[in-house]
Every structure is written in C-alpha cells, then in structure tokens.
Amino acid sequence: MTIHFRKAELSDIEVLLTFEQELIQHELPMDLSMKRDEKIYYYNLPELIHSPDVEFLVAVTDQKVVGCGYGKIKENTEKQAEGKYGYIGFMFVAKDYRGNRIGEQIINRLNGWFRSKQIRETRLDVYDQNPNAIRAYQRAGFSKLKLEMIRFLED
C-alpha cells in the first residue's frame, strides 16, 4: 500500500466531516462534559484549510483519503520559554488503515513544517483513557506533560 500526503482541500470536507464524527463518537465516552443531545463539531474545517498558520494534511491511497491531521502555530503563555508553539490536532486514521504508522508519518511531516517556521516545541491533546493514541504519540516522540481533571458539582 502506497500512501501519499498532501494539503487538505475544500473538496475533502465531506470525508473530513465523517472522520470528525467518528472521532467524536470514539471520544464521547471519555468526556462526560460533552453534549449528548445534539450533533457537535470540533473544528471549523474551511478555516483550518485556508489559514496561513495551519498545515492541514491528508493521507491518500488509491485516490481515497484515509487519514488527516493539522499543525497550527499558536502563541505560548508568558511563562513558557518559547514564544510560540506548534499544536497538532485532528489526528485521525480510518479504521481499516490503522497500524500502518500513517499518523506517525503525518506528525513527522507536520514537525518538518513547524521546523521550517522556526517552531521548536509541539503539543497535542489526548484523552487519558485512550491508551492506543497515547502509545502512538509516545512512539512519535511525545511525552506526557500534565493531566487535566474534572469534577461535576451536585446541586
């Protein structure tokens, strides 16, 4: 199987919306704070595709989009050593194509883009209850930084 990578285009929106909903359905049981009574979206896809501060990549095989991920340059807080950092988001690989390190290849390409923009720090978010994703990100060189916690207050 040969995988090619290219920038996401508006013509990819339909498959990207499908990927987004699959990702949300996968993460919904891990996040009790998410709405359950209406359809939700994580991303403004046209904005991500057109933003000069975003590199949005898709993985393609046999003219079929099978994965995606984006990198976005963000401002760091004043306490951080680096003024800006690279944020990696919407990492998704279609179920039948997982295990081929497509996500890792997307991350490597995004890291190359960040380097070309003089960005030396990259971050991403992952649910603590998603061990497969955590292992994949650790294989790609990421390490755990902090854990966000939540509590719902009773009336």
From TrEMBL:
Residues covered by the N-acetyltransferase domain: 3-155
CDD domains: NAT_SF (cd04301)
Pfam families found in the cross-reference section: Acetyltransf_1
Keywords: Acyltransferase, Transferase
Chain coiled-coil ranges: none
Single annotated GO MF: acyltransferase activity, transferring groups other than amino-acyl groups
Domain of life from the UniProt record: Bacteria
This protein's name: GNAT family N-acetyltransferase
Natural source organism: Rapidithrix thailandica
